[in-house]
Write a structure and sequence with these properties.
The chain is mainly alpha-helical and about 150 residues long. The protein has one domain: Vaccinia Virus protein VP39 (Rossmann fold, 3-Layer(aba) Sandwich), CATH 3.40.50. The protein has nine helices and three strands, in the order ααααααβαβαβα. The protein has a three-stranded parallel β-sheet, covered by helices on one side. The longest helix has 21 residues.
């Protein structure tokens, strides 16, 4: 299947409205969606008192340890993404999908359940100048993966 064919099928599949797929979500997924929307909404995060933000995101020792893994993933994306289709499942704010697009991926796809994350990722992609190579989708991830496996 060509990139063009893939995008056409993806476009057809993604015509379901947000309200339609939201109505199909289990309570657990709705709570997950709400959590991620609040966690990634810059208006909410920027207005948190510093002690509250620190409590939510302040495990600096953990994040220093993660730096090695992050460096490994960044190098892997840079080496393996050019001329490929890159799928960033649960992309959050789209960091890895954007890195893959910058690295020369033919197509970089970001999937996330959070509409706030998708807005953030789309904005970052535009600011990075890679929005043409990047497709960020706000859909039920399981349904998208079912579709992708049928391609």
């Amino acid at each position: 299947m060509t990139k063009k064919d893939f995008l056409e099928r993806l476009k057809i599949h993604s015509k379901k409205t947000s309200a339609e797929w939201l109505s199909e979500l289990e309570d657990r997924k709705l709570r997950e969606l709400e959590f991620h929307n609040q966690d990634r909404d810059q208006n909410i995060v920027s207005n948190l008192p510093s002690h509250a933000y620190e409590k939510l995101h302040g495990n600096k020792k953990f994040y220093r340890t993660v730096k090695l893994s992050t460096n490994y993933v960044d190098a892997w994306i840079k080496q393996n993404s050019p001329s490929k289709i890159f799928l960033d499942y649960a992309c959050g704010n789209g960091g890895n999908a954007i890195k893959a697009a910058r690295a020369g991926a033919d197509l970089s796809i970001g999937l996330d359940i959070s509409d706030v994350s998708i807005r953030n990722a789309s904005l970052s992609a535009e600011e990075s100048g890679v929005s043409r190579a990047l497709h960020i989708l706000f859909k039920v991830i399981v349904k998208i993966l079912d579709f992708l496996s049928s391609v």
